[in-house]
Amino acid sequence: MAQWIVDYVPTWNIIRISGIAAYLLLFAGVFLGIAQGMPAAKGKPKATMYQWHTRTTWLAFGLGILHALTLYIDHYSPFTWSELLIPFSASVHPVGSGLGTLSFYALLIVLLSSDLRNKLGRKWWFMFHMLSYPAFIGLLVHGMITGSDSGNVLMRLMYVFTGLSILGITVLRGLLRERKGPQITIGPNRSQSQPAMDRNWGEAYGLVGAGRQERLK
User: Fold this and answer.
1) Which residue of 45, 150, 191, 192 lies most exposed, with the fewest beta carbons within 10 A?
2) pLDDT tens digits, residue range 69-84?
3) pTM score of the predicted model
């Protein structure tokens, strides 16, 4: 059965398509997560963005698993389990492959910490959640280094557009937050009630893989 898969399934195409799709879905998840934390995002639009940000992030994670498994069974340039699981140990593109592995681990931590959000507490959840940024950046560099299509002009434009989009919306959200009112800091604020502090955290940092959605007004 395994040999049939290797001989007849277009593993190389699956590797390329799953890798690009996973990156684009992660981009969508991060972008929507930041957007739904904007001051203007309220009510139904905020809830819709949250739902799609969660869906696209989990889809990206699933395609990442498919990408890794196909690399293992590929007959053209197969990876061993150790090369897939241990960063920077691959014989082909060790730096790029290592960044892909680290990004996968970072995304896994983000998703798991979101499910354990109530047990971890908001401060620890936020610290783990910030791994969303290096996970995205790592996958961007991973794709540019290891992707067989990375020399294509359209692919380069895609990486530039997605990278600048995340940078731009992050800066914009920070500017809008600063203009709106008091700065939101890490850790408890004794001058705020706990419910108010919880709302500020949730609205300010709606990144990848947030756990259960808080009630929206």
Assistant:
1) 191
2) 999 988 777 899 999 9
3) 0.78
